Amino acid sequence: MIKTLMELNRRDFLFKSTLALGGLALDKMIRIPGEELPHFAPKVKRIIYLFQSGGPSQHDLFDYKPLLNKLNGEELPDSVRQGQRITGMTSGQKSFPLAGAQFSFRQYGESGAWLSELLPHTAEIADELCFIKSMYTEAINHDPALTFFQTGSQQPGRPSIGSWLSYGLGNGDKDLPEFCVLLSNGTGKLNAQPLYNRLWGSGFLPSVYQGVQFRSGKDPVLYLSNPHGISEETRRSMLDTYEKAQKLHYKEEQDPEIQTRIAQYEMAYRMQTSVPEVMDIDGEPDYVYDLYGPESRIPGTYAANCLLARRLLERGVNFIQLYHRGWDQHFNLPRNLTNQCRDTDQPSAGLVKDLKQRGLLDDTLVVWGGEFGRTNYSQGVLEPGNYGRDHHPRCFTIWMAGGGVKKGISYGVTDDFGYNILQDGVHVHDFQATLMHLFGIDHERFTFKHQGRYYRLTDVHGNVVRDILT
Q1: Residue range 55-84, pLDDT digits in tens
Q2: Going by DSSP bridges, is the β-strand pair 46-53/426-427 parallel, antiparallel, or unpaired?
Q3: How many structural domains is the chain composed of?
Q4: What are the strands, taking DSSP E only, across 164-279?
Q5: C-alpha span between 344 and 120 (Å, rounded)
Q6: CATH number at residue 399
Q7: Cis omega (within 30 of 0) on the bond before 227?
Q8: What is the pLDDT of residues 129-186, one digit of tens each?
Q9: Which of 44, 342, 357, 414 shows its CA 20 to 30 Å from the CA of 25?
Q10: What is the domain range of residue 306?
């Protein structure tokens, strides 16, 4: 009996010691055992990631392919497709007619970047942008492709990219969360694919690092306001009492999530003041609204969210993620893509211009892109003036702007059909590794041990794309 009690005490001691060490993981200085972040001098301090959910068509926006127009209506050659996987939505088609873009392209700026007529405002900032035209992914359907970009894995449950950066570089002593999320619905497709909060979740990292979603309306953050009858003084007294009780609980259990809960309650209390202030855009001058476009005055729109992203950034938020739905043009692409670009073109360009004129672009990274591209052939029947495009993971385009990234360049080359990459392919993990590098993080060394394995955002591979960096 004595031996059994001794064994139990030993196990209890080891268990609580491990939890105590886990609690220390909340301290920035020892998040990565034996080293301190950043690993080297960062090029940027913050990021605004403009995620275009649904898969924008590179053929109709960025990757000009005159051959597709010349061969419009002809069959996609087998030598180009090479038996590659396609989705179930077009696998049953007997014909794969090539669909040339029905929008005109021109070159803009000193860089000579090719851009569609649908993006006149983006054309004005062409020399600020770094276009990556050779992105590729392993996922061919929306949910796994979205999850792959945001977490480094097609399977749900991993920490999001914003949570990784918040965990590695965040400073909890703020009045706003380190990682904020804004959602908007586009006019390019009604009933677009849903977005799940696990895309900005913290996975197995401490929950304090998950993204906080902001909404339009009187309650931008759910459950933040005090209930009817609860004053600020009462709330403060309740939190003080709660903290005392939880500290006693932590002393007994040594569970790091107890400290996380205390920190989250305190953050919520500070946000009761900071959130209404940042969401109140009525004081912005008219020239700012003119910059972002007329919809910037309408809460919940993409334009309003771009303006809010700048306001959040100015107030110390270091990772701001915008999701804009509606880019999934399987049918009626000419009409629907035109609507979608009307949502996003001016606000995206306006954000870059606004950051530059305020001196913020030099140490801020702006990213624009979706989870995959679109096919060069028409989904369904190709009609005069009308076509649709299916998902295409083999090559697509994103752009980046800001600190540490070369301006006015196009990186990567696709074939004349816009189907395969000919030069300088950039995998999703390469993109994530490059993003981490800009923040001064070596993606191979930045790990977290979970269930006996060391995990990282880039999983088991990924290379920094150094040719696009200054």
Answers
A1: 999 999 999 999 999 999 999 999 999 999
A2: unpaired
A3: 1
A4: 179-185, 212-214
A5: 11
A6: 3.40.720.10
A7: no
A8: 999 999 999 999 999 999 999 999 999 999 999 999 999 987 656 889 999 999 999 9
A9: 44
A10: 46-468
Rg of the chain, C-alpha, whole Å: 24
Helix 161-169 to helix 142-151 angle (10° resolution) is 10
- Is residue 322 within 8 Å of residue 211, measured between CB atoms? no
Buried b (16+ CB within 10 A) or exposed e, 70-87: ebbeeebeeebbeeeebe
User: Cα(341)–Cα(377) distance, rounded to whole angstroms?
Assistant: 21
Q: Would you call 158 helix, strand, or coil by DSSP? A: coil
Q: Which secondary-structure segment (H or E) carries 132?
A: strand 129-136
Q: Check the CA dihedral 131-110-337-162 and report its sign.
A: positive
Of the candidates 326, 391, 335, 417, the residue with the CA atom closest to the CA atom of residue 89: 391
**Is position 34 within any domain?**
no
The reply to whether 117 falls in a domain is yes
Can you point out the beta strands (E) in 174-226?
Answer: 179-185, 212-214
- For 149, the token pair is 């970009």
**C-alpha separations of 228 from 82, 231, 232, 394, 414 in Å:** 64, 8, 11, 54, 59
